[in-house]
């Protein structure tokens, strides 16, 4: 393991690494920079990279013109709400699958996975019509329900793989010590699984925050989360780049930070435990 | 307060019968060891007694009352697991207090009992530590502490020493024996190590393939093994089991002689052989020899026995210490 | 490993998740299937009638379907190609020790966390715009004619955007796999006289094969349903040039209100996705046993 790496080699890779990283990150960086420009600066040619009058006008503008905070709230409620509800449903299910497996457990897990592979257009029409009839179109509740359901399989799977790593003997010890099932889950399993539960939570908030099929198709002005709100910038061509950038920066910043924290879990969650 | 009776207990997983049928009486205060090779069903049997596993059929009585369908917590038994199964997120104190908390005892009572147990087990200085900050032996003691505070009707030990290194294992073996003398509570102890069984048990239950081969005190099993399996399993080094012409002479299918019941000589004896390996342990010498017409035989000589690989030795099985077994493996 | 009591408790605790998901999957899917055999347009309420397989006939013979199918395949294939090749190179790069490795790693995975509508709009406006975009500026600086990406190369442009979003995913998974490679195995190969290239071909690549399969399968599942990126950049156009199956079904349902036709399209999409899903489920199922 510990072998000397020549400084030259290290410097070469440093240069290549940072160049590649910069290129890949550039669109995001550019968005952030543009968000501090005026609309005129934003479309200046040749583009101004750093030397311009930095201003927060676009941020103020975004809020005053379109009640931006309402959409932020929608995003927060929808992503956090759906994740928490799914977690409440998933923890007992994952407990059962991990600690009391039967011959059918594997089939059930596989079947849950398969629901995740159902393309959304396959059920777009009936969901749309049902929602229309039930008055759920363009409501936060409607989206919370959809996102709970589409993330439930991932949550069950992730929790299952985390729970599997907890030795069953510890839960049995608690049973011997007189803990009821509820106490076993609350006092023993959950505290032990906190890291796993937290990363499951994190990843699914990210996924729900960025979900852009159902949020676009089932909402209008009212319940639109940021994904759908920002899509509304697609029509007026060319004129609102600074504001688009400001809105985008705010929409991606929190999730980018969460995402950076959860990179490891991301792999595990999105591959259903196939790659750890 | 702590007798356990198994009546016609059997266990199947799907179609495989792990335990065909077992009857067993464990008296109050007894130290019973279940011993057998891995996969013999000894742990399953313990888990059935604990209530962590259902018996497929049969009845388990604890102090005479039917406990077969009782939840583990209701049986009044404590268990020490092979992996210790300590709660990693709780301190030593929290671990030992957990069963009392679950039983809804008052804070002051809990505190008294936990500190009392910690004192007995030399854990007082470690009460605030988390399990991962403890050594293997300390963890083991915490697991025992967690088991004793409940004042159970019986303790169940599931191979509790197998994760410890050899020196520590001997120490803990003594501590557990001592604990039994102090508490005088029934203990059921599962192990695959016959030395543990011999040294600790009042009563040994030898299991093989889910069947009880023999039940008895350590010396009973040593002196009168009922069959080939017990003969081969109890005692170290293993009993020499010899079949063929040498056995036929004794009117048996197989004869057995313990290594310690074979005299060694460089000059004379009925069996003549060539030394293959010599193990000098200081107090004893184990001589493995290839005996003409008999096969490989191990003999144990007290003290030092000066012999080298390849040399000739003569072996003399002690009269009256030769075990005879029939075709079906049962002792004759 | 449990008693009757725990087993029945387990069944009880599993049932909400199972029942909810079952309802979520079966009810709408059955409705889609049913609608797909109806003549049913939201603009003509009350006129529903049995249409047999007519909707399928129309959907499958519509030239737009052929285009959309081809576009879907090109989009999925293109993104897979870029992300696998790029992801392997990036993973190898990030596996090397260099200054600021951790930060570069964060920069590289960042695009994955950008919501699809944002990345699509940023690329469309600020990078690909034929007059004010960065690409146009670069082209002019090099004395070239700027390209009107989204009008002239719509599918290629969408592919680029989607590949940028998924490159981090491939990189991260391949990097994880790379780092799980036993160091001793590489050292053993080195002792056996394998040079860096043969080490890569005989040791590293086979080790990555499984992770690559996972990347291909999972990306395929998601890429078959690319939607937002098309909606906010090209609206499937010009013409049908950047319409994929998902977008085609969406257009039929929510732009033309043809419930029957859209449902038939939805069922076709489900069947296509299942072809991939079967492989993925087998692979993960195998892993579950290990």
TrEMBL record, chain A:
Membrane-related topology note: Multi-pass membrane protein
Transmembrane segments: 12-33, 76-96, 108-131, 143-163, 184-209, 240-261
Entry's localization field: Cell membrane
InterPro entries: BP-dep_ABC_trans_perm, MetI-like, MetI-like_sf
CDD domains: TM_PBP2
Primary localisation category: membrane
Protein name per UniProt: Sorbitol ABC transporter membrane protein /mannitol ABC transporter membrane protein
The organism of origin for this protein: Phyllobacterium leguminum
UniProtKB/TrEMBL annotation, chain B:
Membrane topology note: Peripheral membrane protein
Keyword Cytoplasm: no
Signal sequence segment: none
Alphabetized Gene3D superfamilies for the sequence: 2.40.50.100, Nucleic acid-binding proteins, P-loop containing nucleotide triphosphate hydrolases
Keywords: ATP-binding, Nucleotide-binding, Transport
GO cellular component entries: ATP-binding cassette (ABC) transporter complex, substrate-binding subunit-containing; maltose transport complex
Family membership: Belongs to the ABC transporter superfamily.
The protein's name: Sorbitol ABC transporter ATP-binding protein /mannitol ABC transporter ATP-binding protein
UniProtKB/TrEMBL annotation, chain C:
Subcellular location: Cell membrane
Main location: membrane
Example of a GO cellular component annotation carried by this entry: plasma membrane
TM spans (from-to): 12-37, 68-94, 106-123, 155-178, 208-232, 264-284
Name of a matching Pfam family: BPD_transp_1
Record carries keyword Nucleus: no
GO BP, one annotated term: transmembrane transport
Domain named ABC transmembrane type-1: residues: 69-280
Keywords from the named record: Cell membrane, Membrane, Transmembrane, Transmembrane helix, Transport
Membrane protein topology class: Multi-pass membrane protein
UniProt keyword annotation of Transmembrane present: yes
Gene3D superfamilies recorded: MetI-like
Similarity-based family: Belongs to the binding-protein-dependent transport system permease family.
Annotated protein name in UniProt: Sorbitol ABC transporter membrane protein /mannitol ABC transporter membrane protein
Organism whose genome encodes this protein: Phyllobacterium leguminum
